[in-house]
Task: inverse folding
């Protein structure tokens, strides 16, 4: 997964793209709650989820709406999540592999 996690791993170089824990957490949340949230409500839920993970360590909420939007934008540009159309218009879902037609 190459969604940006906001760290400096890319600047240090290296062979492979870094593993983004925040992107994988968002993707697993979206997979568990497929087509349940629209983009704004998903962002609010992810902010609470991310801050809940960091609050015991730092005692401060470090995630903001813009941070989560960057994670969601990166996942969408990579083709890992999508906005649904009718009948779940505007809901967020994960992207499955290509569908195979039954013969």
Result:
């Amino acid at each position: 997964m190459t969604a940006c996690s906001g760290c400096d791993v890319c600047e240090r170089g290296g062979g492979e793209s870094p593993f983004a824990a925040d992107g994988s957490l968002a993707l697993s949340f979206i997979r568990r709650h497929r087509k349940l949230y629209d983009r704004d409500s998903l962002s609010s839920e992810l902010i609470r989820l991310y801050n809940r993970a960091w609050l015991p360590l730092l005692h401060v909420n470090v995630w903001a709406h813009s941070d989560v939007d960057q994670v969601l934008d990166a996942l969408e540009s990579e083709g890992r999540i999508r906005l649904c159309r009718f009948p779940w218009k505007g809901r967020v879902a994960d992207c499955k592999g290509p569908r195979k037609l039954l013969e």
